[in-house]
Amino acid sequence: MTSPKRVVVVGAGITGLTAAFSLASQSARSIDITVLDAKDTTGGLIRTSPFAGLDAVDEGADAFLSRVPWATQLANDLGLTGALTSPSASHAWIWHEKMHPIPGDIMLGVPASVRSFGKSQLFSNSGKLRAGLDLVLPRTKNNDCIGDYIRRRFGSQVQERLVDPLVGSIYAADTDNFSIEAVPQISALTSSRSMLLAARKARSQAVTEGPVFSTPLRGIGAMIATLEQRVESLGVQIRTNNSVSNIERVGAAYYVTTQHDRIEADAVILTSPAAHTAKFMTSLNTDVANSLSRWDHADVILVTLAVPRDQWTDALTGSGYLVPKPDQRWVTAVSFGSNKWAHWKNDNNDMILRASLGRDGVEVMHLSDDDVVNLVLADLTLHLGRDIAPRETRITRWVDAFPQYRPHHFVTLAGIEKTLGATSPGVFLAGASYRGIGIPACVQQARNVAQTTAEYLSNLAD
Predict the structure, then answer these.
(1) Are the C-beta atoms of residues 6 and 265 closer than 8 Å to each other?
(2) Could you tell me the CATH number of the domain that includes residue 264?
(3) CATH classification at residue 389
(4) How far out from the chain centre does Cα 126 lie?
(5) At how many degrees (to 10) do helices 14-26 and 221-233 cross?
(6) Per residue in 52-67, pLDDT tens?
(7) 205 — alpha (psi -120 to 50), left (phi > 0) or beta?
(8) Are 398 and 334 part of one and the same domain?
């Protein structure tokens, strides 16, 4: 009998756990898998906890995109399909001096219809005329920067009031310093001369059946809890409170050092954030470690509030609103949670709000909890035109939560992976720092890296 191969997965977030699940359940041979995480819990940036009398209110991501298959397939594999729900409110707002409905017929902020865009009061007449030039301008060179490309096609108003708030709300990004290749929906439109015409065609061909977003009724944390149970049932060891300090190669084997252990492995899957990964990569490759250490990450604070209904108004419909960068003081986005999710209704019938602070270039972690709450309430008063006195608040601080994909990110990543393949075969990267931060993107990367790892192990001599 051949001895089982050994794999260490660094990071017990959605990527690491899915990679371990895929490897353990699909591999044709026996593999000993150990998942390590520095924190005392699994889930990484996914966390769901009780709030304001509700059993499960997410502290991070509260849904996944369901019109791409990967997260939906994982939920199915975990037996969660019957427990999924979708938002009950679909439209949202942009706050620019007042609330404006986000125009219809857009692709992540890129106009796909002259009529819909032209009717919006979010833009001045001159801004609309400038945006219309996209239809006649010659092809624009793609320098892999969202802000640069959108400004040259549509002008500053579309960039600042539509594209940047929408993309920025997903990535906590400043799109004037963010790779266009990192946002596939927008990147795909750059192959045509006119972005508007390309967006119109893409919308006409897009899948429109079924919900856009889904989540378990017990929150995204239910996916992590179920995934952890399934992984452990397959014999995978999950070791929390195990911070990796070094990885070195000795002969054909790798040794992963934590404060508790020195674990031998045939392959290593790294799903931890790039800047953290860099700290224990020096022994493997100094150039890779230095490159990863320069990758930027944005901090975000998410404040959850339970607002009494007599302080709310029925006019505030929809799923929430975004604040364009030139209009931002502190709050970048607000989700009307009880509008968005029918099951977020407590005994007091409070409106559950989730307000986000922080993005690339704006530091927030120095603020005290009292400062954070006061700044959020001041911004809510400005945006909503009424004073808010929440019945309950919760502050969640996400440090280094959002990797920033700088222009030419994927060229840099390809170079890193080529170097690792040459000097450290069997060491693989996957996760939010690399090819997408959303849950579906992380699940897709996990599936792919599991397959790559299995193929690598199958080629090793026993």
Answers:
(1) yes
(2) 3.50.50.60
(3) 3.90.660.20
(4) 34
(5) 30
(6) 999 999 999 999 999 8
(7) alpha
(8) yes
- Looking at the structure, do residues 286 and 418 belong to the same domain, yes or no? yes
- Neighbouring CB atoms inside 10 A of 228's CB total 20
pTM score above 0.85: yes
| Beta bridge partner(s), residue 359 | 362
Residues near 78 by beta carbon (within 8 Å), at least 6 away in sequence: 223, 226, 227, 230
Range of the domain at 435: 5-45+217-295+405-458
Kindly indicate the confidence band of residue 28, based on its pLDDT and cuts at 50, 70 and 90. low
Span 253-281, pLDDT tens digits? 999 999 999 999 999 999 999 999 999 99
pLDDT at 116: 83
Number of domains in the chain: 3
pLDDT in tens, 324-339: 999 999 999 999 999 9
Confidence of residue 210 (pLDDT cuts 50, 70, 90): confident
Contacts of 227 (CB under 8 A, 6+ apart): 14, 17, 18, 21, 74, 78
**Other beta carbons within 10 Å of 262:** 11
Between the two ends of the chain, the Cα-to-Cα distance in Å is 10
**361 with 323, same domain?**
yes
Distance CA 197, CA 152 (A): 16
Which DSSP state fits 160?
Answer: I
Can you name the residues that pair with 214 across neighbouring β-strands? Answer: 64
DSSP-derived 3-state class of residue 223: helix
- Identify whether 75 is part of a domain: no
Q: What is the mean pLDDT of the chain?
A: 95
Can you tell me which residue has the tokens 């849950």? 439
Enclosing H/E stretch for 106: strand 106-107
